[in-house]
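Supplementary Methods. Inverse-folding protocol.

Structures were first reduced to a discrete structure-token string of length 103. This string, shown here, constituted the complete conditioning input.
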């Protein structure tokens, strides 16, 4: 399945304004539920729902969900920062906590 097909299988995120990724108390990233980022919020939310955090295993699943965009991110580092983050998490075997920001 391509990314659009994968995305259609994930829970909706209408109840979220944003999602934050934390390393301890430090906010590493904030992904807003707005055009251009909503798909990433949906992916990261799904990973959080399944794994309780975004760790190496969750990151590997996220990279599969991003499908064709993962290959593009690998070919062009920096073009897809939310995918780049998953690549880094998987490679470094780190884990980030997730904070959901209600709409």
């Amino acid at each position: 399945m391509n990314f659009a097909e994968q995305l259609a299988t994930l829970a909706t995120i209408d109840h979220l304004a944003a999602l934050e990724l934390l390393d301890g108390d430090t906010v590493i990233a904030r992904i807003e539920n707005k055009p251009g980022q909503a798909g990433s919020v949906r992916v990261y939310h799904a990973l959080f729902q399944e794994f309780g955090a975004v760790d190496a295993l969750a990151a590997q699943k996220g990279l599969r969900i991003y499908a064709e965009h993962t290959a593009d991110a690998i070919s062009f580092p920096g073009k897809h920062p939310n995918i780049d983050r998953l690549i880094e998490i998987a490679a470094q075997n780190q884990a980030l906590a997730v904070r959901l920001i209600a709409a």
